Amino acid sequence: MKLCVSILTFFFLCILMTADMSLREEVCACPLNYEPQCGSDGKTYSNLCQFNCEVSQLRTRGVNTLTLAKTGPCEDILNEF
Fold this sequence. Notes:
Layout: H1 2-24, E1 37-39, E2 44-45, H2 48-60, E3 68-71, H3 75-80
């Protein structure tokens, strides 16, 4: 009986720890519309929401360098010069 209680307690603590860790991760849900945005990293994001999600995720890691370079896909930037 003590073994069962110990095992159940272990699983309960594992579930609590997993739930606590998942609360720290930011969840970003964006629409699927395609309105391309070019980031300063040279990556085309499918829409402004996706871009803002990337900015937010980078900031949680201490990176604050991603900015919006322009509206539209990034490959157009190469043709502008």
